[in-house]
Amino acid sequence: MSPGSGRPILDRFRLDGRVAVITGASSGLGAACALSFAAAGADLVLGARRAGRLEATAEAARALGGRALAVPTDVTSPADCERLVAGGLNEFGRIDVLVNGAGVASAVPALREEPEAFRRVVDVNLTGSYSMAQACARVMRPGSSIINISSVIATTTLDAPQAAYTASKAAIEGVTRDLAQQWTGRLGIRVNAVAPGFVMTELTASSETYVNRMVAQRSLTGRGAEAIEVAAAILFLASDAASYITGCSLPVDGGMRVT
């Protein structure tokens, strides 16, 4: 019998009784996921480097009726990843969902990009996501879900020099498929990704002119996404509504892949 069989369809989108770990939760997509998950009934374990803004997200989630624990976390530190998961277990007794929301971007011509700058992007976006997935999978029960954040740039190119970011996001899609193959049948953990196009967040605000130009050229909707629109897709993948979906990357890109 599938998870939630016999439940009304809208109830399958709920996360009541679930505990979700969300990294990058101090702003942008991570914060939008935190508030969406809280509204859907989840308890939250929130990680990010900026402690003050992280606690503000936790307070906003609590105002929606959920419980939330804020743990300052640098996902490039495996010890921090383990500490975030341990904090969630100590506070709530279980981990059911991981959203790997922590991420950084760069736009540097390849002939000028320093090796350390390239490594930094890969360390946060790829290695950090992998470390968090390892830490959570060790304690997750069957029926749990991991959602990685890919990007439209994993499968196409844009008018910007983004070798490090492109490499990290293409690798995320490969890791997502492999972890799904390893963990879904054996551990009952679904592993998926979402692949946004341009999302209007703090991360893209500094490149507003470029973003507007690319949106006009590539998005069939003629606009960038609001963070809540991507968070809704992540909520779907986390919930029992997506109980038969694993190993996929779900585009949320306004049609950019077909232009």
Give the topology.
Layout: E1 19-23, H1 28-39, E2 43-48, H2 51-63, E3 68-72, H3 78-92, E4 97-100, H4 115-137, E5 145-149, H5 163-187, E6 190-196, H6 202-205, H7 208-218, H8 227-238, E7 249-252
Parallel strand pairs: 1-2, 1-4, 2-3, 4-5, 5-6, 6-7
Kindly describe this structure.
The protein is of the alpha/beta class and 259 residues long. The protein has one domain: Rossmann fold, CATH 3.40.50. The protein has eight helices and seven strands; from the N terminus they run βαβαβαβαβαβαααβ. It has helices spanning 28-39, 51-63, 78-92, 115-137, 163-187, 202-205, 208-218, 227-238; strands at 19-23, 43-48, 68-72, 97-100, 145-149, 190-196, 249-252. The protein has a seven-stranded parallel β-sheet, with helices on both faces. α3 (78-92) packs parallel to α4. It is globular. The mean pLDDT is 92.
